[in-house]
Write a structure and sequence with these properties.
The complex is a heterodimer of chains A (263) and B (662).
Chain A: H1 2-26, H2 33-48, H3 52-67, H4 73-85, H5 89-100, H6 107-117, H7 129-133, H8 142-166, H9 169-198, E1 201-204, E2 232-239, E3 242-246, E4 252-256, E5 260-262
Antiparallel strand pairs in A: 1-2, 1-5, 2-3, 3-4
Helix pairs in contact in A: 1-8, 2-3, 3-4, 4-5, 5-6, 8-9
Chain B: E1 3-4, H1 16-33, H2 38-41, E2 48-53, E3 57-59, E4 64-71, E5 87-96, E6 99-105, E7 108-114, E8 116-125, E9 129-133, E10 137-140, E11 143-146, E12 150-155, E13 163-170, E14 179-189, E15 208-210, E16 223-225, H3 229-233, E17 237-238, E18 245-246, E19 264-265, E20 270-275, E21 281-295, E22 299-303, E23 306-316, E24 322-331, E25 334-338, H4 347-351, E26 352-366, E27 369-371, E28 376-386, H5 400-403, E29 406-408, E30 412-415, E31 419-428, E32 435-436, E33 440-445, E34 450-455, E35 459-460, E36 462-464, H6 471-478, H7 484-490, H8 512-540, H9 543-567, H10 571-590, H11 599-608, H12 613-630, H13 639-657
Parallel strand pairs in B: 1-24, 3-12, 15-18, 26-33, 27-36
Antiparallel strand pairs in B: 2-4, 4-8, 5-8, 6-7, 9-12, 10-11, 13-14, 14-21, 15-23, 16-21, 17-19, 20-21, 22-25, 23-24, 26-28, 28-31, 29-31, 30-31, 32-35, 33-34
The chains are: A alpha+beta (263), B alpha+beta (662).
Chain lengths: 263, 662
């Protein structure tokens, strides 16, 4: 039995390391001082702005932070504001939509996005059935879902190991519940990963852009009316400088890549 | 109903495609034969202008195709089409006729180059009679070339009262972006009795109606239909053999060789009484084709002429069958002037948004209960028919009742065909306002032909004071607290106010592979724990293994005890312990009962386990000595054997470790 207890101790250490490794995967990278300075500089530029060009400069400073590899809902939200004030409604919508993945419960973000979209307050787009089943999908942020997966997996592991030694029904049931929770949130996080990382989204950033039936201006217009700035779509695929896009109404057309922004 | 057709004088058959094919065939033949005349073709030929018309005689309202071909011209320019006041001219496109071929005959190479261009037009006569199409003028290298003039005989429509067609536009006075409807009315005299209740369109061949504005691609610049032609004519399509064919729609069918595949369109008919050519009130079937357009610019748009050609029942033969008479009818064109709106004056100019048409104006403010600084959304919606594409949002900052109580953010505009919505972000700056005032706009009412003012209803609202905050909260807020409350407070400045706390910046990037690796590690760890636990449990339940593993230690302990007792001259106990150490070792290793194990059994067991026979013999002898000492048969002390016994035990244990087990 002494041998058994030694093995158990070793694996307790291993488990702890695994759990830490799991959480370390989701831990945020430290924000350096230079990034904070750029952020504050962008805020000052925004406050001092009184022309669209000034606001665009602020947006460019936020873009500098994003280009350094940092993904931050706060930076994206502020960048959306700068674009909004600069009159770049399409780019603002893209920034707000991107920020929404990381700040889903921010009422100001919702309000500003609705303002950019010109939508009715409280109005929401048609959602697929899966998002009604995973009802928390628009309430939890993208990173939060991964953290819940890690937490529930660690709990499942703990209860699972305990169940190996203690053989109590309650512990076993708790372990099963934690496993179910892990699977559920893994699916939820995987769904987000699919729609955010596998599918590219985009917004039209110019007014009255003609979507074509093919990847050249010689093709006929795909729709009876040109697309207005702020029209959202999903990228189907890219061919040269042209993008085949699918609108929320499931209609498809080709757009030149300089008339859209992808995120 | 049986039908007999009268022979008709078919003039305006569509020969153009066939003529084009012949021209192409001729061209190909000439290309093939050109090597024979290579030396001649190599000479530069003089430029020439060839003119061709698709028909020499047409009915009033019909069109002809007119082509101008420039041959042997290096850099052709479009011909001047002057003197065509008697025609409506529509340019249909141009086509290059350039070609190059090289032939080698008996080693002599000849290059044939053709340079040319064809320009195609559709000409629609504006009057009847013999009309002249003047020769087109083309300038080539500074020299004017004139094509041959052509003549066209335009035959007036039959004077008849079987088919009466008419065009009208509603409303009569029009402004840009105002929808208007052009209605073609076709009245067809009822069939002779007793067939007057039957449709006059039930003949085998559908009457062919040509409506110029039914072809979307041929509409003039600045004129847009409210719906495309498919949506317009689609609901009128008739599955029965009853109706008009419009613009030969449906002709492109692989089975048209076998049956009439022209689609038929039939608006809901109305039976009316109209005067015939003698002034007598007669029953007619009236069909209407209304189509709505929007003119995007001022000017005059011409609709028509509309032509109708087909067989219509006019009398009965001796067998009481309806006899069809071929009729050609024309609806004279109408001109639709689009005039500009008069400029607004005074207050109208201040509130005029550029809207022209007929509208409703609604306003909504949400939420209706808010605190000072809270975001509110004002939605103003203009609904109706008219100019919605280019109107500007009302400037709320010019309305003191609103500007004094709210911070106003720039409006966003969302426009579709019938609706224009302005969305404003507002924030109340004090709690004194209880009614959001109405917002007025001015538009040009095309029905009244004057400017009209619309005003939204006042909206009762409740604005409360903002929450007071403790000094601690305010201080911590200024230091950049990351609490949610502070975040709301710090962003009170405006709906597009920024998050100012640098602590809110986090790198939230997701690396799914890392997460997967972490989850995989946990799963792997659990699998290892489960496997090891299972193994330990299995081992714990194997008593033979446990005895075998503990045999050496147990024998050494007994050996130590035996040596201690022998050292104290307790020979009997020492001999007993010594025997137990050796027998116990063999019994534990073999998992057999220790009691009753004789020296012979032990020797046999050791030999069975593959130990050295000499060792087994010494082992057996030592046990016998122990037995002898224990039972008094030995005349000397066991002390001298103690060292040998210890060495023998260690040697036995060493050899037993090499044993792989039963």
């Amino acid at each position: 039995m002494a041998e058994l207890s030694r093995i158990t101790s070793l694996f307790r250490i291993h488990c702890t390391l695994c759990t830490f490794a799991l959480f370390a995967a989701g831990c945020a990278r430290q924000i350096d001082l230079e990034t904070v300075r750029t952020f504050q500089g962008a805020l000052q530029q925004f406050d001092a702005s009184d022309s669209p060009e000034d606001y665009l400069r602020a947006a460019a400073m936020y873009q500098e932070i994003l280009d350094s590899g940092i993904v931050s809902g706060t930076v994206l939200y502020n960048q959306g504001n700068a674009f909004m004030q600069a009159g770049k409604r399409g780019r603002a919508i893209a920034a707000y939509r991107h920020a929404q993945r990381y700040r889903p419960r921010d009422p100001y973000l919702d309000a500003n996005l609705n303002l950019a979209l010109g939508a009715e307050p409280g109005g929401s787009p048609r959602r697929p059935m899966i998002e009604y089943i995973l009802f928390w999908q628009h309430w939890l942020s993208y990173p939060e879902k991964f953290k819940i997966v890690a937490l529930s997996a660690a709990i499942a592991f703990g209860f699972g190991v305990c169940a190996l030694f203690l053989r109590r029904r309650l512990i076993k049931n708790l372990a099963i519940a934690a496993v179910v929770l892990t699977l559920l949130f893994s699916f939820s996080a995987g769904y987000d990963w699919y729609r955010y990382d596998r599918i590219l989204h985009g917004v039209v950033i110019q007014d009255r852009v003609i979507a074509r039936k093919g990847n050249a201006t010689t093709y006929e217009p795909a729709f009876t009316e040109p697309l207005s700035e702020g029209t959202e779509f999903r990228l189907v695929y890219r061919q040269g400088n042209w993008l085949r896009v699918r609108l929320p109404s499931d209609q498809e057309g080709w757009l030149p890549d300089d008339s859209v922004v992808l995120y | 109903m049986s039908i007999q057709h009268c022979p008709i004088n078919w003039i305006a058959c569509n020969e153009w495609p066939r003529a084009g094919m012949f021209a192409m065939f001729g061209f190909v033949v000439s290309c093939l034969l050109s090597p024979l005349a290579g030396s001649l073709a190599a000479q530069k030929e003089a430029p020439e202008v060839l003119v061709k018309t698709s028909h020499q005689r047409v009915y009033e309202g019909q069109s002809i195709l007119y082509s101008v071909t420039l041959n042997h011209v290096e850099n052709p320019s479009a011909p001047e089409m002057s003197g065509l006041e008697d025609f409506d001219v529509q340019f249909l496109g141009e086509q290059s006729l350039d070609s190059t071929s090289i032939t080698i005959i008996n080693g002599r190479m000849t290059q044939n180059i053709r340079r040319g261009r064809e320009y195609r037009y559709r000409l629609t006569p504006r009057k009847t009679g013999r009309l002249t199409i003047p020769g087109p003028v083309v300038t080539v290298d500074g020299q004017s070339l004139v094509g041959q003039e052509q003549f066209l005989e335009v035959i007036p429509a039959d004077q008849q009262d079987v088919v009466v067609m008419d065009l009208r536009v509603d409303p009569p006075n029009l402004y840009p972006m105002q929808p208007f409807t052009v209605t073609l009315t076709v009245a067809i005299k009822s069939l002779p009795a007793p067939f007057e209740a039957k449709s006059p369109l039930g003949f085998d061949e559908a009457p062919r109606l040509h409506i110029p504005w039914a072809a979307d691609e041929e509409l003039p610049d600045g004129l847009e239909p409210q719906m495309n032609w498919q949506d317009w004519l689609g609901p009128m399509q008739s599955s029965a053999r009853d109706g008009f064919n419009v613009n030969d729609i449906g002709r492109n069918s692989i089975s048209f060789f076998f049956e009439d595949r022209l689609s038929r369109f039939k608006p809901q008919p109305v039976q009316v009484q109209l005067p015939d050519k003698d002034g007598k009130q007669t029953n007619y079937w009236k069909y209407e084709f209304p189509r709505t357009f929007i003119a995007k610019k001022t000017g005059t748009f011409r609709f028509g002429p509309v032509t109708l050609q087909g067989a219509f029942g006019t009398k009965l033969n001796s067998r009481n069958q309806v006899i069809g008479e071929e009729i050609y009818a024309v609806a004279q064109p109408i001109e639709v002037p689009i005039q500009d709106v008069p400029p607004p004056s005074g207050d109208e100019a201040m509130l005029y948004t550029g809207a022209i048409g007929r509208f409703q104006w609604n306003g909504n403010l949400e939420p209706k209960q808010a605190k000072v600084g809270d975001p509110m959304t004002l939605t103003l919606t203009l609904i109706g028919d008219g100019t919605l594409q280019s109107i500007s949002a009302p400037d709320l900052k010019q309305i003191p009742e609103i500007a004094d109580h709210f911070i106003i953010y720039e409006a966003t505009v969302e426009t579709n065909r019938k609706r224009c919505q302005f969305t404003y972000g507002l924030r109340p700056i004090d709690e004194t306002i209880s009614v959001f005032p109405g917002v007025s706009i001015v538009y040009f009412d095309v029905d009244q032909e004057q400017y009209a003012t619309l005003r939204t209803d006042p909206i009762p609202i409740q604005v409360a004071k903002a929450d007071r905050r403790s000094e601690d909260q305010i201080v911590s807020g200024q230091r950049g607290s990351s609490s949610r409350n502070h975040r709301l407070e710090s962003r009170r400045e405006g709906i597009v106010a920024n998050i100012t706390d640098p602590k809110e910046i986090r790198d939230e990037s997701i690396h799914p592979t890392w997460w997967l690796a972490g989850l995989g590690s946990l799963l792997g760890a659990y699998a290892v724990v489960a496997l090891v636990t299972d193994q330990v449990r299995r081992v714990a339940g194997d008593t033979a293994l446990l005895r075998r593993r503990g045999a050496a230690g147990k024998a050494r302990r007994r050996m130590r005890d035996a040596l201690a007792q022998l050292a104290q001259n307790r020979t009997l106990d020492g001999a007993d312990q010594l025997r137990n150490a050796f027998c116990g070792l063999v019994a534990d290793v073999q998992n057999v009962p220790e009691a009753g194990l004789t020296p012979k059994d032990a020797r046999q067991a050791l030999e069975t386990m593959g130990l050295d026979p000499d060792l087994a013999l010494r082992f057996s002898n030592l046990l016998e000595k122990c037995d002898a000492a224990q039972y008094g048969a030995m005349d000397h002390d066991l002390k001298p054997f103690a060292t040998e016994a210890k060495a023998l035990l260690e040697e036995t244990i060493r050899q037993l470790k090499a044993w792989k087990g039963p």
